[in-house]
Design brief:
- The complex is a heterodimer of chains A (about 350) and B (about 400).
- Chain A is α/β, with parallel strands linked by helices and about 350 residues long.
- Chain A is about 25% helix and about 20% strand.
- Chain A has a seven-stranded mixed β-sheet with strand order 5-4-1-14-15-16-17, with helices on one face. A six-stranded mixed β-sheet of chain A has the order 6-7-8-11-13-12, with no helix packed on it. In chain A, strands 2-3 form a two-stranded antiparallel ribbon.
- With about 400 residues, chain B is an all-alpha fold.
- Chain B contains 16 helices and two strands.
- Chain B has a two-stranded antiparallel sheet.
- The chains are: A alpha/beta (about 350), B mainly alpha (about 400).
- Chains A and B meet through helix 1 and helix 3 of A and helix 11 of B.
Chain lengths: ~350, ~400
């Protein structure tokens, strides 16, 4: 659970600033880094899955999850520099879903940038999403860091165009363990763009990549997967500090591959179980990952949530705000050069996770 | 009359104690049958439907201490102008409530919250509607020094009285073994808490139906209401009924869309102002009872957790028909209004906007008007015999 006022003692010392939200004593973090100008935070909301029923009716539970995340984000003080939305704003990509989701998001006090999810994309291949939110892939710079947004949930053209209707295509891609499914990929067009975009960036500049799918190969049946992940890694290899932040998995995952730190974000809609507790097929959950504490089914919002991300000199520190559950922080451990959970990394410190589904 | 009352309170409490100490988890049936035997003789088991009363190890129940606590509970001298006792807001004839939307202190000052019943309060895991005190001992000290309740600036005025009033000082010496200067407000609090812990009542019509197999105890409408209570109405998710007892509370905190719905746009400002004031040493008890909007932050004022914004403790439903009006702010006059609010999914009126922090469990219930009436009928079956108000009877 998250508190807005963790650091009262510190507050009294620095009474000019209201203590910041979540489990993050932000003032302490700020003190720890020499170059405070490059230390900033942004909020990350993802996987709302706004679902249209008919007319003006939408699935209430998913609405409430997103509304709550927006309202809580608006309570942060000091305010985060910007807000990211990590994809799957809609459930079946329809205009009413995207519009309703955008309306809920419009209550945010900050600028929002969007990532494309497969639930946003496969009805009209992102056409209406682009009208609302802009290009499907792009980059921007903020306080000395370079941010890249990829559409990582595209797939083979033959699959995309094999279906008799757009609606069926959307439903096929939305299914789990679907033998008619197809693996996600960034694709050649975006890889070329990424190469030219990165060519303009100094190797010492911290790079943050936002994607919807993991940019790793974890479990194909649920598309916890990006088919051309290795090629993306190769393009990112020359940079000192690279962070990848992805949605889609509705659970906490993190990993380190070479110079790249990977972090997932939570959904506001519902949690998925870990593949290891469910999958019959081969799966590769990252070794570093500590599963989140088991959700209590009594609480309808348990194991969903949102994130406050602190960028401290180029490394991502993830602070998970998890309703009804213990707050989690995954921070970059400079000594071990990898992200680690601030409380549960060692096996003997963990609350036993969900072992079956 | 007064002696008789004390005797019955003492008996109830001793029974509670014996149930507590005799409660062998391996032989619950034996304990139950012993109690039933006792009550066959008395034709009544006042504890039917209740678990054993949790008694703190450092404050055991004795009839003398309970009696002292009762006297303290009714002493109006423990207030700034000599008019306010605990019993002002927790009067026996309304099951230890006051019948007001929000309670009234000295100079007719009004607070922000509805007086909860003291009956069965001993079972709560925290005290006050926002749980800001862990136990009755902690709770009982606060209203004395709240600026709009008893209005004292500190507890010294109470100590001055209990140290010099011979009947008090003799009782404290006898019960706690403390003489004048050793006598502190904590002894006063322990005595009051002991009295409050003696106010335990079960044996409602529901208890006789559910736990004593008396099929005649509930009407047809009440039986339908019980089914809705544990089914479509989802009431039991928080107002719990267990296999062998029913407290009708889980002692947890939920935002159910009362009060907070009206201040949604103001929440960010209120939270910022409240945290700043608290960080500068502000007293939570005083802050939440003197400002209506701050009060609506609910349990957040105690924990500062996002989850607790606008959340208040699940109250017991025992004796609920005697303790109107309802909700933490007393904003509903009838139980029907309460059920309509839940049926709407945490909003009143039905087309109002739910607050962003509404608990996930609060959702539209699709109950018909008849079903809601059945639920009201069921709640009328939760009154213990000693708190039944007989129409036309002299109180």
């Amino acid at each position: 659970m998250s508190t807005l006022n963790h650091n009262r003692r510190n507050f009294i010392k620095n009474s000019s600033a209201l203590a910041l939200g979540c489990a993050l004593p932000i003032s302490l973090v700020e003190l720890a880094f020499a170059d405070s100008e490059k230390n900033f935070s942004f909020a990350y909301i993802s996987d709302a899955h706004i679902q249209h029923i008919k007319g003006t009716r939408f699935v209430r539970n998913w609405d409430k999850g997103l509304i709550r995340a927006v309202a809580e984000t608006n309570l942060l003080a000091p305010k985060p520099d910007f807000v990211m939305f990590g994809g799957d704003l809609a459930q079946l990509g329809s205009q009413p879903e995207l519009e309703h989701g955008a309306e809920i998001m419009s209550a945010l006090n900050q600028d929002v940038r969007y990532v494309m999810g497969e639930h946003d994309y496969y009805l009209d291949l992102g056409a209406y999403w682009e009208k609302l939110f802009g290009p499907q892939y792009y980059s921007f710079d903020h306080k000395g860091a370079h941010f890249i947004v990829l559409n990582s949930i595209r797939t083979y053209d033959e699959w995309t165009h094999r279906w008799p209707s757009n609606e069926q295509r959307m439903l096929e891609m939305a299914g789990l363990d679907n033998p008619n499914g197809s693996p996600f990929m960034v694709g050649e067009e975006q890889r070329k763009w990424l190469q030219s975009d990165l060519a303009k960036v100094a190797k010492r500049t911290p790079v943050v990549v936002f994607s919807h799918s993991p940019l790793q190969k974890i479990y194909k049946g649920w598309n916890f997967w990006t088919e051309d992940a290795e090629q993306i890694h190769a393009l990112l290899q020359p940079f000192d500090k690279v962070n990848v932040i992805y949605g889609h998995v509705h659970q906490i995952q993190y990993n380190q591959i070479g110079n790249i730190s990977f972090h997932s974000v939570m959904a506001t809609a519902w949690p998925w179980p870990y593949p290891s507790s469910y999958a019959q097929a081969e799966q590769y959950l990252p070794k570093l990952t500590v599963p989140m504490n088991r959700a209590d089914p009594f609480f309808e919002r348990d194991a969903t949530g949102w994130q406050l991300i602190n960028m401290a000199n180029g490394n991502v520190d993830m602070n998970f705000t998890l309703y009804n559950n213990s707050a989690r922080s995954v921070r970059f451990n400079k000594a071990n050069k990898q992200p680690e959970d601030s409380r549960y990394q060692e096996e003997n410190t963990r609350i036993p996770g969900q072992q079956h589904y | 009359m007064r002696n008789l009352l004390l005797l019955s309170v003492g008996l109830t409490t001793l029974l509670a104690c014996s149930q507590s100490s005799d409660n062998n988890p391996e032989q619950p049936a034996v304990v139950a049958s012993q109690i039933v035997t006792v009550n066959k003789q008395a034709h009544v088991n006042p504890l039917l439907g209740l678990p054993s009363v949790p008694i703190p190890a450092d404050n055991p129940q004795t009839p003398e201490k309970i009696s002292l606590g009762e006297t303290l509970f009714h002493d109006q001298r423990f207030s700034i102008d000599g008019t306010v006792s605990c019993a002002n807001c927790h009067g026996k004839k309304l099951a230890f409530t006051d019948g007001l939307p929000v309670s009234m202190g000295h100079k007719r000052l009004t607070g922000t919250r509805n007086a909860p019943t003291v009956v069965n309060a001993a079972f709560y895991k925290t005290q006050f509607l926002d749980g800001r005190e862990p136990d009755l001992e902690g709770q009982s000290k606060q209203p004395f020094i709240n600026p709009i309740e008893h209005g004292l600036s500190d507890h010294q005025a109470i100590l001055d009285i209990v140290r010099t009033d011979f009947s008090y000082s003799a009782a404290f010496l006898s019960i706690f073994g403390v003489s004048d200067q050793e006598l502190t407000i904590d002894h006063v609090a322990k005595a009051i808490a002991s009295f409050e812990r003696s106010l335990i009542s079960g044996n409602s019509a529901f208890d006789r139906y559910y736990f004593a197999a008396d099929n005649q105890a509930l009407s047809a409408a009440q039986i339908r209401g019980l089914q809705l209570f544990i089914g479509q109405g989802r009431c039991v998710s928080c107002h719990t009924i267990e296999q062998d007892h029913a407290l009708f509370t889980d002692s947890r905190f939920y935002n159910i869309g009362i009060g907070i719905n009206d201040i949604q746009a103001d929440i960010p400002r209120l939270i910022k102002a409240f945290l700043e004031a608290k960080n500068q040493g502000g007293n939570v008890d005083a802050m939440v009872l003197s400002d209506k909007k701050t009060s609506e932050l609910g349990r957040f004022a105690v924990t500062e957790q996002l989850l607790d914004i606008g959340a208040f403790k699940t109250p017991t439903l025992r004796n609920i028909v005697v303790t109107a009006p309802y909700m933490h702010d007393g904003s509903f006059k009838t139980l029907k209004e309460v059920i309509i609010h839940y049926n709407n999914g945490g909003v009143t009126p039905a087309d109002a906007e739910a607050n962003a922090f509404l608990d996930g469990g609060i959702r539209p219930l699709k109950l018909s008007n008849e079903q809601m009436d059945d639920l009201v009928a069921f709640m009328q079956a939760l009154t213990s015999p000693e708190y039944v108000i007989v129409k036309g009877a002299r109180q």
